[in-house]
Amino acid sequence: MKNNNSIIISSDHNGLKLKKKIQKVFSANYNFIDLGPHSIDKVDYSDYASQLAKIISQNQAKYGVLICGTGIGMSITANKFNNVRAAIVHNSLSAINSKDHNNSNVICLGSWITTQIQSLQIIDDWLMTSFGEGRHVKRIEKISEHRPNNIVFTNGCFDILHTGHIELLKFSKRLGDKLIVAINSDDSVRKLKGNDRPINSQDDRKALLESINFVDEVIIFDSESPKQIREQINPNIVVRGGEFTADEIRERDNIPSEIDIKIFPLVHNRSTSEVIRKIKNSD
User: Fold this and answer.
1) Catalytic site residue 162?
2) Could you say which of 68, 77, 154, 159 is catalytic?
3) What's the pLDDT score for residue 2?
4) If DSSP states are collapsed to H, E and C, what string results for 56-107?
5) Which one of 158, 213, 236, 239 is least enclosed by Cβ atoms within 10 Å?
6) What is the pLDDT of residue 1?
7) What pLDDT, on the 0 to 100 scale, is given for residue 224?
8) Is the pLDDT of residue 119 over 70?
9) Is residue 88 domain-shared with residue 148, that is, in the same domain?
10) Catalytic: 268?
């Protein structure tokens, strides 16, 4: 079922008319999967919200739309499911920010609160907005439910440990039960960074990382890419630091769709190169 152009949509009897209008207006660009209801007979909003939220929670669809009189009941119900971020939205600014800042994957509309024209604009703004990532990633993960038994994988040189490294590792560990860190061997660091790197040997870097209580295992790999070691580990989640989006990382590193990707934003002025520069300037 999962498709970036597929949207799960549902309502109660109060949202039926708006549900039909949304599908009619946006069906040229999106494939709607309508969970009902299909008549004006009174129904319980919680039943339809639960059905939609379960689909989103199981990662069978990326986005969902729920409509009732105010959107409140739908939102309360949907947000009880893991991985669902259902936002009650009654204006365009909230629609945009709920996606940009909060990475909402379900939008809840109130047919009593906004007109059809307003609701259609809200939906359009929400669908056209992408998650801003960056500084918002850490905040979103702090409100996400801990996922037990998940293996989290990250990699890098980790030559001179600094605040940026520690924050990335702490963030990674919060995502699952076991954090595995793969570090480049000395030979692969030289290929990537030049003959004057690494500053610290692979054994020293490994020992230092292993002393951090939220790192469960450290593996040294000799190739420039961690692809082979990642495939052997088969993690649930891959964490990368940088300014790329998750979709860009997935395509660039050929990471399968079943593996979740989290991007940890770079910590300003915190890098091994910056540390080396300061040391050289202090001489």
Assistant:
1) no
2) 68
3) 42
4) HHCCCCCEEEEEECCCHHHHHHHCCCCCCCEEECCCHHHHHHHHHCCCCCEE
5) 213
6) 39
7) 79
8) yes
9) no
10) no
Note the pLDDT of residue 271.
64
Q: How many domains does the chain have?
A: 2
Are 157 and 224 in a shared domain? yes
User: What's the pLDDT score for residue 83?
Assistant: 85
Q: Is 80 exceeded by the pLDDT of residue 146?
A: no
> In this structure, are 59 and 172 located in the same domain?
no
Catalytic residue among 34, 47, 70, 162: 70
Q: Is the peptide bond before 198 cis (omega within 30 degrees of 0)?
A: yes
Query: Do residues 156 and 206 both lie within one domain?
Result: yes
Residue 117 sits in the same domain as residue 68: yes
Taking the chain, what is the end-to-end CA distance rounded to the nearest angstrom? 60
Asked if residue 1 is part of any domain, the answer here is no
157 flagged as catalytic: no
pTM for this model (two decimals):
0.60
Q: What is the CATH number of the domain that holds 157?
A: 3.40.50.620
pLDDT at 3: 45
Could you give the CA distance from residue 79 to residue 86 in angstroms, rounded to a whole number? 6
pLDDT at 278 over 90: no
Residue 91 and residue 193 in one domain: no
User: Considering the domain boundaries, does residue 101 fall inside one?
Assistant: yes
Which of 47, 101, 124, 129 is an active site residue? 101
Q: Are residues 126 and 29 in the same domain?
A: yes
100 is catalytic: no
Active-site pick, 47, 136, 162, 253: 136
Show the beta-strand stretches assigned E in the chain: 6-11, 31-34, 63-68, 86-88, 106-110, 151-156, 178-184, 217-221, 237-241, 260-264
Single residue among 77, 101, 131 that ends a domain in this structure:
131
Give residue 39's domain range.
6-131
Q: What percent of the chain has pLDDT over 70?
A: 88
Q: Are residues 17 and 113 in the same domain?
A: yes
| Rounded-to-integer distance, Cα 224 and Cα 105, Å | 35
